[in-house]
Amino acid sequence: xxxxxxxxxxPTQQPTPQPExxxxxxxxxxxxxxxxxxxxVLSGRARRxxxxxxxxxxxxxxxxxxxxxxxxxxxxxxSSLTVTTLYFLIAIxxxxxxxxxxxxxxxxxxxxxxxxLIGLIPLIGTLVLLYYYIKEGDHGxxxxxxDPKAGxx
Length: 153
Hints:
The protein is mainly alpha-helical. It is 50% helix and 4% strand. The protein has four helices and two strands, in the order ββαααα. The chain has a two-stranded antiparallel sheet with strand order 1-2. A hairpin with a 6-residue loop joins strand 1 (2-4) and strand 2.
């Protein structure tokens, strides 16, 4: 961007603003970002670490409730309304951040959040989404926002 000074003898150049550099994050920080700071944010982009950190720690939080729920469903233990209720409360609690981080992850590779619907196609849809979640994000800014890894590449 060129700006002409008042004396018109010499143009001066002002530096263009650089995108904010986000430091490298851990999987736990990715989970906290997705679950606490961006609980229901569907806009913007999510790095792979944010997405996979959220998936890992969600799985670990679900595990203690999931095992008794599955055992109750297959008849290994007596079905308990408490186990079923607890399972569904946690599932509802994790639904919105899971949806939000998945949409933001798709945005990072330049895809619309509507691509989540491809997961409704058995096996093929799941494999396509898995490929998208593993794929490296777009370099630089795309139509969904600035690169969350700007300055780290």
